[in-house]
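Page 37, continued from 36.
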């Protein structure tokens, strides 16, 4: 029976190859591919690519080699990787991005970035990009292409099928009661339309990927004897089983006061989620963490933060390995780190009107794919149209 790593050199046992090469960063693997045709073939093997992703993800969680992807800039957008150390030093400058400055980053997963651009047409254009290996693929156009009143998108991974998926939820108008849902599969390279949940979109924030599930804030209109109110909750979409699931918020957050705001971010330390509650006029901020993912009773208010000086409360972007918070200041749009207990601030000299920050794992994903944008663009037989 042929090995999973086909054409393996007889002088280099497969288990030793995996043990050694899965630990190497992508830059080192690129050099190995130039040394030997056999190594080149093996490194491009889908099984090795998956094994390398898995191993690198474990390394990121267990040691100090945690990386952040940063997009920022004023006029020209820049992309870089930074080490999660005291100085937030630059690990690499990324030069390859397939979009111009008008795109948004939906999310990152296993080294892949999902980018979206709908500036110039009624259609949302999506691209999956691995900037480390300088490779990208343009996705087929979604099934539902009208300009939405509100849109939320989430990108993640299905480990059971070794597949990357993109969930898109849209609402046509402010008075529409139902949302429309469609799902893209990289493995099948097509979209399909799904039955929508009964909940509405709270905001157009991009979804948060944790534990093979994308999460966002949703709400349900509740009729209390003729008086309507909105009940907030977290809605998730399981990428493995393609099903929606409900996660109840703490009682305090289910009915927010006027002019308050909430959103979800990952809490990587516990492989869970956190909810940021911004008070009225962004004067204060409470951070709630689900200490055991899926267990509603473990919601805990971990921190209460005040403003930095006179400007409104900065937006919380994520958590660092040491527990500090990554923030984007409100007025001068600087990227800073804040100790939530001592309130000490570290400034990184990074500033821009468009800032995106996320944890990042270098990978070889897309290396084994033969990219044919013309084929992708012309593929119009979208799966799921029959399910309308």
């Amino acid at each position: 029976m042929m090995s999973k790593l086909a054409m393996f050199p007889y002088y280099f046992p497969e288990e030793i190859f995996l043990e050694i090469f899965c630990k190497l960063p992508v830059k080192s693997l690129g050099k190995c591919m130039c040394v030997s045709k056999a190594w080149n073939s093996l490194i491009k093997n889908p099984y090795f690519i998956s094994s390398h992703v898995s191993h690198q993800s474990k390394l990121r969680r267990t040691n100090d080699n945690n990386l952040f992807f940063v997009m920022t800039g004023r006029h020209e957008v820049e992309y870089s990787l930074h080490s999660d150390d005291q100085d937030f030093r630059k690990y690499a400058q990324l030069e390859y991005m397939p979009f111009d400055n008008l795109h948004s980053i939906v999310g990152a997963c296993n080294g892949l970035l999902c980018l979206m651009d709908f500036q110039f047409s009624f259609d949302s254009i999506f691209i999956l990009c691995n900037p480390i290996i300088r490779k990208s693929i343009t996705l087929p156009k979604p099934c539902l292409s009208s300009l939405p009143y509100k849109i939320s998108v989430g990108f993640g991974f299905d480990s059971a099928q070794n597949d990357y998926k993109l969930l898109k939820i849209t609402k046509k108008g402010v008075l529409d009661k139902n949302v429309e849902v469609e799902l893209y599969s990289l493995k099948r390279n097509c979209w399909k339309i799904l039955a929508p949940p009964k909940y509405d979109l709270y905001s157009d924030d991009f979804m948060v990927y944790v534990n093979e599930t994308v999460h966002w804030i949703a709400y349900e209109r509740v009729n209390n004897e003729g008086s309507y109110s909105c009940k907030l909750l977290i809605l998730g979409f399981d990428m493995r089983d393609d099903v929606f699931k409900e996660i109840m918020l703490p009682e305090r957050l289910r009915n927010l006061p006027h002019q308050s705001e909430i959103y979800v971010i990952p809490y990587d330390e516990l492989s869970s989620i956190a909810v940021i509650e911004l008070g009225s006029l962004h004067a204060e901020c409470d951070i709630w963490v689900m200490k055991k993912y899926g267990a509603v009773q473990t919601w805990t208010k971990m921190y209460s933060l005040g403003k930095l000086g006179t400007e409104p409360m900065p937006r919380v972007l994520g958590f660092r390995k040491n527990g500090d918070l990554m923030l984007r200041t409100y007025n001068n749009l600087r990227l800073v780190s804040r100790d939530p207990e001592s309130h000490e601030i570290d400034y990184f000299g990074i500033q821009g009107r468009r800032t995106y920050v996320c944890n990042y794992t270098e990978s070889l994903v897309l290396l084994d794919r033969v990219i044919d944008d013309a084929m992708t663009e012309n593929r119009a037989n979208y799966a799921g149209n029959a399910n309308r």
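The two ends are 44 Å apart (CA to CA). Flag for discussion at group meeting. The chain has a mean pLDDT of 84.
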